[in-house]
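Researcher: We plan to redesign the surface later, but first we want a full-length starting point. Tokens attached.
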């Protein structure tokens, strides 16, 4: 089975590192991290990850704008996006789902559960 590739887009280095270490260790996935929406769009086009973990609150271009640009791009529109957000209410979840996002994971997240949360959201097996 092909190793899953996850792109983490978050302006906080600590979140990038925790997500990368946990997903590589727990799920043996390949993880790439970037610090901005603009970088995320460019990396998604060239690297073609299996999923994108996207922070909502970022300077310059927020996660919602980044998601809209990914959706508008034929090269990236089919890549599932999971939001990472500190603000997550039932109404937010409904709005994100209506926009076409795979799921939203609350920050702070449990590092040991992150891989299974992603796998569950996307219907993936966590077995290698």
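Model: Full-length starting sequence:
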């Amino acid at each position: 089975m092909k190793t899953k590739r996850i792109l983490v887009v978050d302006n906080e280095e600590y979140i990038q590192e925790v997500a990368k270490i946990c997903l590589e260790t727990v799920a043996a996935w390949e993880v790439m991290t970037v610090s901005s929406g603009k970088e995320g769009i460019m990396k998604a086009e060239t690297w073609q990850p299996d999923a994108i973990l996207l922070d909502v609150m970022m300077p310059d271009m927020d996660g919602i704008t980044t998601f809209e640009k990914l959706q508008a791009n034929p090269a990236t529109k089919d890549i599932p996006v999971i939001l990472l957000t500190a603000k997550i209410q039932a109404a937010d979840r409904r709005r994100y789902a209506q926009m076409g996002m795979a799921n939203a994971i609350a920050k702070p997240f449990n590092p040991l559960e992150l891989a299974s949360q992603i796998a569950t959201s996307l219907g993936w097996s966590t077995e290698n």
